[in-house]
From TrEMBL:
<dbReference type="Pfam" id="PF02721">
    <property type="entry name" value="DUF223"/>
</dbReference>
<keyword id="KW-0238">DNA-binding</keyword>
<dbReference type="GO" id="GO:0003677">
    <property type="term" value="F:DNA binding"/>
</dbReference>
<dbReference type="InterPro" id="IPR012340">
    <property type="entry name" value="NA-bd_OB-fold"/>
</dbReference>
<dbReference type="GO" id="GO:0008270">
    <property type="term" value="F:zinc ion binding"/>
</dbReference>
<keyword id="KW-0862">Zinc</keyword>
<feature type="domain" description="Replication protein A 70 kDa DNA-binding subunit B/D first OB fold">
    <location>
        <begin position="5"/>
        <end position="104"/>
    </location>
</feature>
<protein>
    <submittedName>
        <fullName>Replication protein A 70 kDa DNA-binding subunit B</fullName>
    </submittedName>
</protein>
<keyword id="KW-0479">Metal-binding</keyword>
<comment type="similarity">
    <text>Belongs to the replication factor A protein 1 family.</text>
</comment>
<dbReference type="InterPro" id="IPR003871">
    <property type="entry name" value="RFA1B/D_OB_1st"/>
</dbReference>
<keyword id="KW-0863">Zinc-finger</keyword>
Length: 308
């Protein structure tokens, strides 16, 4: 019976009349392209052998599939457009990408793959984030959305302006970390989190980077993705912890106790990672703040630790 379903790597752009069995790993909120009015939604699909593919839904089809292709559920899917991925995106999107349209056939089947899904994540503990700071390594995290700060407009050292917003995450050890959302994530995920703060959402974030900006924080990348309250074992354990500590968490938000815990403290770097000031002329960071317009203007091309 399984033989009639193709595995994701076996589907090529030239293939027709194929059907694949897939589990929805991640389904982002719909968003608008940066330089056009096109709306799109990214979905990560996985077959029973853990092969993954990036699928995209555009414009009116987003609403048409709103109640289908739900995270963690299993489907039979056919008639998707398959095309090679542009070279610059292959490192994180794979060799091919699927486009889901009005011609695509989707049928839900009752199979539970939550254990398989859970095994695909390698979450980094909050107290081990420093190891990945300012590296090119993507990380995944799981935490509780404790609070969210107001969005603000910044001017990057590239000379462009961007909206960012910080989400305060907490784990079962009462450790705090800031998750900085950029641009589209501010207009989508941050609004969703803000509207559901009282639920204390369990947040799973993937393809994130650890930054040294403002001490230590986690930041989104273009290909970052989020899950909220998934039916995973780790998420259910964290939900139980929230229920047992809800009064304490509410009190932390009321008193803003987390402000004293963020940003995360950094350990003293080793001598070989220190840089003498006279070795970096002209590369010091410049920070300018415009309080009246609630803007932070900054320019930075140096990342390191200075000593005299």
């Amino acid at each position: 019976m399984e033989d009639k379903y193709k595995l994701i790597p076996d589907v090529s752009p030239a293939d027709t009349n194929w059907t694949a069995k897939v589990i929805v790993v991640e389904k982002s909120l719909g968003r608008t392209a940066q330089y056009s009015p096109t709306k799109y939604q990214n979905i990560t699909l996985m077959d029973p052998e853990k092969n993954k593919v990036q699928a995209t839904i555009y414009n009116t089809n987003i609403q048409a599939f709103e109640d289908q292709l739900v995270s963690s559920k299993t489907y039979l899917i056919s008639n998707t457009a398959v095309k090679p991925t542009k070279q610059q995106y292959r490192s994180w999107m794979g060799d091919v990408q699927w486009t889901i349209s009005g011609r695509t056939k989707v049928e839900e089947i009752q199979e539970d793959h939550t254990v398989l899904l859970s095994s695909t994540y390698d979450f980094i503990f909050f107290d081990r984030l420093e190891k990945y700071m300012d590296s090119k390594v993507d990380i995944s995290i799981i935490g509780v959305a404790l609070d969210i700060k107001p969005k603000r407009l910044i001017q990057t050292w590239f000379g462009t302006q961007s909206y960012i917003q910080d989400v305060v995450l907490i784990n079962e050890r009462f450790q705090i970390v800031l998750l900085t959302m950029w641009e589209n994530f501010v207009n989508n995920e941050c609004i969703f989190i803000s509207n559901n703060l009282t639920r204390k959402l369990i947040v799973i974030g993937t393809h994130l980077k650890v930054s040294s900006f403002n001490g230590l924080s986690i930041s989104t990348k273009t290909n970052s993705s989020f899950l909220f309250d998934p039916a995973f074992h780790q998420a259910m354990q964290l939900r139980y912890w929230v229920e047992q500590n809800v009064d304490k968490l509410d009190d932390m938000v009321l008193k803003k106790e987390y402000l004293a815990r963020t940003p995360a403290k950094l350990s003293t770097p080793t001598r070989d990672k220190l840089t003498q000031i006279n070795n970096i002329p002209g590369l010091l960071a410049v920070v300018i703040t415009d309080v009246k317009e609630n803007k932070i203007l900054y320019s930075s091309s140096f990342s390191g630790t200075l000593f005299y």
